[in-house]
Design brief:
Layout (H helix, E strand, L loop, with lengths): L4 H10 L4 E3 L7 H4 L8 H5 L4 H9 L21 H10 L8 H12 L12 H12 L6 H7 L2 E5 L2 E2 L5 H9 L5 E2 L2 E2 L1 H4 L6 H12 L6 H17 L4 E6 L9 H13 L4 H22 L2 E6 L1 E2 L4 H7 L7 E2 L9 H7 L7 E5 L4 H10 L5 E3 L9 H15 L17 H21 L5 H19 L3
Parallel strand pairs: 1-2, 2-4, 3-5, 6-7, 7-10, 10-11
Antiparallel strand pairs: 8-9
Helix pairs in contact: 1-19, 1-20, 6-19, 11-12, 13-14, 14-16, 17-18, 18-19, 19-20
Length: 456
């Protein structure tokens, strides 16, 4: 992303600041084992990144041909050099996309490769990456230090043992890696396998979850354990932002029906909405930051989900509503200045109409950065234009990379810092801020907002 001279000056003042990574999906196993072996370039850059295989699938390339395993036992292609060649032959598909930018920057900044990826260069680049991945200087821990990551948060299920986090803590390594409490599997009662997840929660807490009160006790117990292990935040996925305050009796009745498998879809929505309020209540008590991601229809492609399972790139943005849906929660907890609720959406139409006015009023609310499909130069520009004037910069939380692809973290933060510099330079050129303001805003966009927003 090319910058004007003024924007470049603002960018260079912050480009070397440490990276705050408060929300993402990197597997903690990478950092728990000091001798972790990366595998092949395909293991590192292709298979973990649904941005990559989503685009390839859209052009008719079957997922097993690029290494994605199927549920039915059909073996995926195991020749990773062949997969890499297939990807390289089709790399033109990523022209003008953030994925194309990220991987180009990864190749250059992480692996020192400036040659363009295509069919002719595929084998050479594969060999260069393979050689680097076998070098101890490219181990996950050494890259963590080289990337100048100050803190990295993973995302972990409520019943997760956090064994890898314990290994990191006991290893004596100085990198700060913290878990994030994600209770979706035990809160979204209409998801397949919910009762199995409740059994797992019972097992890990030692609390027999036979009723709603024991269920709440188990969740509170796990939150306390996550916090003990360094967690600063929770993360919640919901189809909508609907919230509702139920009495304990009402919630107990719905929970009992869920255990019996007799809960209707409407009742499931009510229970989920109530649990979002309960999670806000718990955050008031234990201080964990609450993240809420709304606006995605998960696993939209039914046949693909049946064959490959969740998280294979078939999630589609959907219309969202916040003003009415969040009102019960905000009337209960929105005026708590020590509570941080960070909102994310894939429905950009809500930025200026709902989210910015809500965050610009309620002390508890903050806005997360452009998420997922909008984590791009144009998405960031739209976010700055639609959010900042009404919400105010200091009711946002800077940037988080939200990635499973560990080597892409610096490229994603760099793009945000460049986009931030472009926006701040525009304000400065128009005389809306002065040079002192611009410098302070850049530091906060790159570093300070995320650190304060997540109480790090």
């Amino acid at each position: 992303m090319e910058l004007s001279p003024l924007a470049a000056e603002l960018y260079h003042a912050v480009r070397a600041l440490p990276l705050i990574c408060p929300h993402g999906h990197v597997n903690p196993r990478l950092l728990a084992d000091p001798a972790y072996a990366w595998g092949t370039p395909v293991d590192v850059l292709i298979i973990p990144d649904h941005y990559v295989f989503r685009m390839l699938y859209s052009q008719g390339i079957p997922l097993p041909e690029i290494g994605i395993p199927a549920r039915d036992g059909t073996p995926p292609e195991r020749d990773h050099r062949l997969i890499w060649r297939r990807v390289a032959e089709n790399w033109y598909l990523f022209r003008g996309t953030p994925t194309g930018y990220w991987i180009r920057r990864e190749l250059a900044d992480v692996f020192g490769i400036t040659e363009k990826l295509d069919a002719r260069s595929a084998d050479r680049i594969y060999d260069q990456i393979s050689a680097a991945l076998a070098d101890p200087r490219f181990s996950p821990r050494r890259l963590f230090e080289r990337f100048n990551i100050e803190v990295l948060a993973t995302t972990d299920a409520a019943a997760d043992s956090l064994r890898e986090h314990q290994q990191i803590r006991e290893s004596g390594w100085g990198g700060r890696v913290v878990p994030t409490f994600r209770p979706d599997k035990v809160v979204l009662v209409d998801r397949a396998g919910w009762r199995d997840e409740i059994a797992a929660l019972s097992s890990v807490t030692g609390i027999s979850i036979t009723n709603y009160r024991r269920y709440i006790q188990a969740l509170e117990s796990r939150r306390a354990f996550f916090k003990q292990m360094g967690a600063v935040a929770t993360d919640h996925d919901a189809a909508t932002a609907y919230t509702e305050v139920l009495s304990e009796g009402q919630a107990s009745t719905l929970f009992d029906r869920a255990l019996r498998g007799t809960l209707s879809p409407a009742e499931a929505q009510r229970f989920t909405g109530h649990m979002l309020v309960e999670m806000a209540r718990m955050s008031v008590e234990d201080g964990l930051v609450m993240q809420l991601h709304v606006g995605s229809v998960r696993n939209h492609n039914g046949p693909l989900f049946e064959r490959f399972g969740r998280d294979v790139g078939a999630d589609i943005p959907a219309q969202a509503e916040f003003t009415h849906n969040l009102r019960p929660l905000l009337n209960r907890f929105g005026n708590q200045p020590d509570l941080h609720i960070i909102l994310f959406t894939l429905d950009e139409s809500t930025y200026s109409r709902e989210l910015a006015p809500l965050a610009g009023h309620y002390p508890a609310l903050r806005l997360g950065p452009p998420w997922w499909f909008h984590d791009s130069p144009n998405g960031m520009r739209r976010y700055f234009d639609q959010v900042m004037e009404t919400a105010g910069l200091y009711n946002t939380v800077g940037f988080n990379d939200d990635t499973r692809a560990f080597p892409s973290i610096p490229a994603r933060h760099d793009l945000w810092r460049r986009a931030s510099a472009d926006w701040v330079a525009g304000l400065l050129q128009r005389g809306l801020i002065d040079a002192e303001d611009a410098a302070a805003m850049m530091h906060d966009l790159a570093y300070g907002l995320a650190k304060r927003g997540y109480k790090l």
